[in-house]
Design brief:
The protein is mainly α. It has 3 domains: about 5-55, no CATH class; about 60-100, no CATH class; about 100-130 and about 140-200. The chain is built from 6 helices and 3 strands. β2, α6 (about 180-185) and β3 form a beta-alpha-beta unit. The chain has helices spanning about 5-15, 30-55, 65-75, 85-100, 105-115, 180-185; strands at about 120-125, 150, 195. Helices cover about 40% and strands about 5% of the residues. It is rod-shaped and about 100 Å long. The chain has a 3-stranded mixed beta sheet with strand order 1-2-3, covered by helices on one side.
Length: about 200
Amino acid sequence: MAGLREATEYRAQLRALLPTGPAWDPDLVPELETILSGLAQELARIDARAFDLINEMDPAIVSELVPDWEQVMGLPDPCLGENPVFEDRRLAVRQRLVAVGGQSRAYFIDIAIRQGYPQAKVTEHRAPRFGRSRFGKGHFGTWSAQFMWTLHSGPRRRLGRRFGASFWGERFGSNPSGALECVIRRSAPAHTVEFIDYGVND
């Protein structure tokens, strides 16, 4: 790796920094080389760990510090169950860091797609209003209908594990609806009433 020194490089550097004189001559004092080798190994180890720490600052490649990132970001996500797998936890850290939220149909459709529902769509209900209602067209009959919307999940993807849809101990290919409902209801605007229509899954 660039910028990472090996133990042999540190040993050569330490040897070059030795004072002059017979007491510091590795040929005359063989034990000195053993000491330099031990110091070089430790310096190389510290160098490698410092390089690892720099990598842990990037959530895209974080590994060892996932629990620390989770503590800062309020993770693990309760919507993912009590024991999400490590890869899902790491992905949750990355997504939580860059998430901006939203209230558009596209935002909630994207949530459903990430939960394993690639054909999801959203219907926004509207209360009857003068100039907007049409004879013979069904409407919700109350004023609060303007705050109602339905997520039609469509058929769920059956194969493969998906982020937020699989938990430790479940068989691969399963996709419980609990995670989708949890994430949608948590993200929905407080003044709205959301419905989730799963339809018929083949």
